[in-house]
Each structure stands twice: as C-alpha cells, then as structure tokens.
Amino acid sequence: MGAYLPSEDDVSGHSRTLRPVSGPGCLVVVSGLPGSGKTTEAKRLQAERLGVRFCPDEWMTALGANLWDGDLRARVEGLQWAMALDVLRTGGTAIIEWGTWGRDERERLRAEAAAVGARTQLLFLDPPADVLWKRIEERGMEDPPMKHADVVAMHEFMQSQRPDQEECSAFDEVL
User: Fold this and answer.
1) What pLDDT shows up at residue 58?
2) Beta carbons within 8 Å of 106's beta carbon, 6+ residues apart
3) Which Pfam families does the entry link to (predicted)?
4) Which of 4, 12, 32, 88 could disulfide-link to 25, CB 3.0 to 4.6 Å?
5) pTM score, two decimals?
6) Residue 117 φ then ψ, to 5°
7) Is residue 55 part of a domain?
8) What is the per-residue pLDDT for 19?
C-alpha cells in the first residue's frame, strides 16, 4: 500500500496560513451539534483570518476511520489541541471545530488558551433540530446513519449546555 498523499482539497488554504504574526494568538471555539454549520463557519473564519482550522472529522476521514470511534477521536483531538496551542503561542489563530457541546470542555479550552496569552472567542451555532436533521441526511457522512430521534435528543441536551451570560463573559468575545 502506498503512502497517503492529501488531495488539493484536503490542504487548500493551509499553506497560506503560515505567515509572520505578532501579538497574542486567538482561539476561536466553534460549538454546535452535527449539521449545525461548524465546518462552514470555521472555513469562513479560516479564510478571513488566515487561521489554522482543526476538524477531527476531516482527519479521521483521511485516515479511513469511523467518525464514531471515540478512542481515536480523543487521540486526534489531543494532537490537534497540542498543535493549536503551538499556533496560539506563536501569535496565530487556531479554530477548533470539535463540537464542544459541553460547557466544561469549552471552559477548559478557553482557560488553557488564556494561560498561553491568547485571546478567546466563542461561536455557538444552534439551528433547530429539523434543520440539523435535514443537513445530516443530505451529507450522509455518519456511519452508521443517525436517526431522527438521536438528533432530537442531542438537540434537547444541547439546550442545557447553551452558553449563559457567565460563560460568555469569560471569553474575550462572542461571535
């Protein structure tokens, strides 16, 4: 079996992200359920800010892995976070699009980024459950496929994890 060579689509935008920067780095946490538009928004931010985007789904797909392999996802996110901290330490913009459904996870990322001197921003995406379901069905990436009831249950859970005023005020900016 030959070596994996990423396609132009896999790496588009990444080479232009390497540029001299000065000042503090910026962490953007893009939070939302599957189908909420995280990747679309993260790609927009990447282009606008010449940031480095960290999407575990893309890495796992490139590795031929199942997106629901929780152990592998945790390892991929760990590697991505180590790289994101390096980006922040050098003054760059790191865009995390892991879902970050829970407040505790968002707070951990915010606190660790602030500890290396980075500014922190939160983008919380919360479309209605029927919009999530339509997008998930259209893209067909989940294996096994998600059920409508699963999407509704995740959406209900996410409502209990919405950033409140206290959490929002901990970030330097809410987008």
Assistant:
1) 93
2) 29, 31, 100, 122, 163, 167
3) AAA_33 (PF13671)
4) 88
5) 0.78
6) 90, 10
7) yes
8) 52
Number of C-alpha atoms within 13 angstroms, CB side, residue 75?
Answer: 9
156/21 Cα distance (integer angstroms): 41
Task: Give per-residue pLDDT as tens, 27-39.
Answer: 999 998 888 889 9
CB atoms within 10 A of CB 110: 21
What whole-number distance in Å separates Cα of residue 77 and Cα of residue 79?
A: 5
Asked whether residue 134 is assigned to any structural domain, the reply reads: yes
Q: Is 26 helix (H, G, I), strand (E, B) or coil?
A: strand
- CA-to-CA separations, 139 to 42, 48, 73, 110, 145, in angstroms, rounded: 17, 25, 20, 30, 11
Tell me the CATH number at 160.
Answer: 3.40.50.300
Is residue 9 included in any domain, yes or no?
no
**Pick from 19, 92, 89: nearest CA to 53:** 92
Q: Which domain holds residue 83?
A: 22-174
